[in-house]
Amino acid sequence: MAQGKNVAGKVVLDPRWQAQVAPTDTVFIYALPANGERMPLAIFKTTVAQLPLAFTLDDSTAMTPERKLSGAGEVLVKVRVSKSGNAMPQSGDLAGTLGPVKVGAKGLKLEIKDQIP
Description:
By secondary structure, the protein is mainly beta. The chain is built from no helices and 8 strands.
């Protein structure tokens, strides 16, 4: 893995949403190119039970071998809680966005604080 070619931080859930989630709900943490492309460069999947969670997205979490996080300059780091476990965003999902941030950024605080209408 290319040194420093990752983004790392902590995902936290805004306390006001605590009653809306179940420990088994799926959490997707992912990085999108800052240029507006919709296909994630890297993704990590976990559950609400693991929150708060320290995360690192890098080339080992790439969606495809051809599209690596290390090749991007800046990314949007996003998180989404899905009741259905579906990779596609759905109404009612909880989400948070950070960025654009430079690849190599550490100590990010990614907060799940918004609800998808």
